[in-house]
Design a protein that fits this description.
homodimer, about 350 residues, alpha+beta, Arc Repressor Mutant, subunit A, Beta-Lactamase, Enolase-like, domain 1, 3 domains, five-stranded antiparallel β-sheet, 13 helices, 10 strands, DNA-binding
DNA sequence: AATTAGCACTGTAATCATGTGAGTGCTAAT
DNA sequence: ATTAGCACTCACATGATTACAGTGCTAATT
């Protein structure tokens, strides 16, 4: 009221910050007396009370009930996070463990992501999330064919740096030569195309080129389509869900159930997350923070999501995130997510082995 | 006391069964009066009480506290399950959905397993588990090499019906010819061998054979080792963990936390489970049931685990299981697991597609 | 001898009354 | 502008009282 509408006086900032710090520590509403005593605020409790009342009016604080202390509102947290300048620095131990863990020879992006996620969860004691983005517009750069036995060929697709394989089974025995010819045709006609560009005319043209082996074209193209459309549907994983249960804010069974259900609806989640972060992925290398209602998913609206995408050679190859109560140790988590993603990027760059690797198990 | 030690009189059986049925339905301790009225037992409550007292002495029932009804002990459940003859039959709806769901073009064992698991969880409303066994003794049948660019080769390994790929990066540019030569050497020397058989002498021999390209041998062999040791480390997945929260027996936060933690220690879990079921996998095609303390993991000792392995051409390719409170709808779950695994086996057999194949026909 | 009716007994859970204490808002004093 | 002081509010803990479901046992009944 004496202050400008949006500008907080230094004293208000001090008090607000102290309140949030305190609340992050113990999770309980904090009162004026406590602040004065424990947090060394050089004013009397009455003064602090007045300030608190104003901060509440301004929307930075909330009061669970009349005779309780104040807790930060989402807006309060947002202010706090935005004003975080003195970022937490990881301890030597943490750094060491991080390096150690990530160093253990791991080459596939998937695996690295996974262990980074586990590490993140362990070190922060919140739930961690690893997201592998849905890859759009898959173009096959090159095809190879390998004859596995009489009737089955293995189609090998080179997509950027990653390799996908697919078995093709034919009723009729297939010669070595057919495979070679098919590879030639594929490389000539089917490279650099999206699934939509596989048109009927193209198919027929290819069949013509295959001569007596034309019967191979249809199943092969089908296989290709399946592969490139399902390719890297994106993945999302969680680790340390149980850790959330350490925090009283997740003690509500109903809520908890919903949250768990959410975590299991990976597809939906992935879609929502990708859509939203699709924008931000291209943004820049900052750690992103969603507090409470800012979250994309309503169920998470009293949680905070902190994450950052990982790029390799400019393209996003994944993201690591942390989910926890809005009352979260922001400094630590932000620092952690930041270092972790940087660490992963480094490893990727260093080994300079690119994403993907074998598509894995069949 | 009038009865033979281990043989239950018909009346006792009747009562025990009724008690368990009732308890499964509503989860609460059941009393004598309730049995008489609701479950149509043709004796007075007093008689039933006497029988119940004896059943408790014999270990089939337990009493939470003096003035409560009885609940079945693990031994009680075991008796119940063993005596289940009239197995539940799935409803038409359930069968339909099951078929529908499994039919949707899915070819890889992984994917099928996964959707079977999800289905299982949905239909039973318990937590479902899918387990892919750790594959022992991986032998590479054949190697191919593909030149991706100047400095990187892709090593293609054929292991049975499945294909694995691995990028090999060299500092020095590699010619097409080097790749071909390497493939020859590998196929000659490194097929059908376990990682332990890759000895130093063998390595040196191969290097000799490679002549000027000997520098490739070490990294490639390393790559192979990595692949075949990490290959199919086995996997375990869960679905519908949140469903457990519907049951009051999981309302204890501490316990719940432990359980969730357990579910996330997939490696340990997999090991324990594989060891134990390794025995049983070779056993036979029965649904297996672990009640309470019988469980391999102490934390699960008031839950029941019901599962069955899935084979294809004789070898176990996975398992589907259900985890729930000991008070579980055994009939339904057993039937469900049974049908589901059978369904999956059929699909596998039918396509007769070995793991990881596109479906050969339309 | 087996069954049942009847009753005293027991332990849980729900309800209510009460007291306690932390924390506030406001007014008056500094 | 700050602070001391005080009345007020509300959640929470405590304890007492009651209601109730279910048992075990004894005595009556078949």
């Amino acid at each position: 009221m004496h202050e400008d509408n949006n500008i907080l006086s230094e004293r208000k900032k001090l008090i607000l910050k102290a309140i949030i710090d305190a609340h992050i520590e113990n999770g309980e509403p904090v009162g004026s007396k406590f602040l004065m005593q424990t947090k060394q605020i050089a004013y009397s409790s009455a003064t602090i009370r007045n300030e608190m009342a104003e901060l509440e009016d301004m929307g930075y604080l909330e009061q669970p009930h009349t005779s309780a202390g104040r807790i930060p509102s989402e807006m309060g947290y947002r202010f706090y996070v935005n004003s975080l300048v003195d970022r937490y620095n990881l301890t030597q131990n943490e750094i060491a463990e991080l390096k150690q863990m990530l160093k253990v020879k791991q080459v596939e992006v998937d695996t690295i992501l996974q262990s980074a996620m586990q590490l993140a969860s362990r070190l922060t004691n919140y739930t961690a999330m690893a997201l592998k983005p849905r890859q759009m517009r898959i173009l096959v750069d090159r095809y190879e064919l390998m004859r596995l036995d009489e009737c089955t060929l293995v189609l090998i697709m080179v997509i950027g740096q990653t390799i996908k394989t697919k078995h093709i089974r034919s009723q009729i025995p297939v010669t070595q030569e057919a495979g070679i010819r098919l590879a030639v045709v594929l490389n000539e006609k089917a490279t650099g195309k999206t699934a939509e560009e596989f048109t009927m005319p193209l198919l027929m043209e290819m069949e013509a080129m295959m001569g007596e082996y034309e019967f191979l074209v249809a199943p092969v193209m089908k296989g290709i389509c399946e592969t490139i459309t399902s390719f890297d549907g994106g993945e999302i994983r969680f680790d340390g869900i149980n850790r959330l249960l350490s925090y009283p804010e997740y003690y509500d069974m109903e809520r908890l159930k919903e949250l768990l259900a959410l975590f299991e609806r990976k597809d939906d989640l992935l879609r929502i997350l990708s859509e939203e972060t699709g924008v931000n992925m291209s943004a820049d290398e900052k750690v992103q923070i969603y507090i409470g209602r800012e979250n994309l998913v309503k169920i998470m609206d009293n949680s905070t999501l902190i994450f950052k995408t990982i790029r390799h050679q400019g393209i996003p190859v994944g993201a690591i995130g942390i989910i926890g109560p809005t009352r979260m140790d922001y400094k630590r988590v932000i620092a952690m997510v930041d270092s972790l993603t940087k660490g992963v990027s480094n490893i990727l760059a260093e080994g300079d082995i690119t994403p993907g690797l074998p598509d894995g198990n069949k």
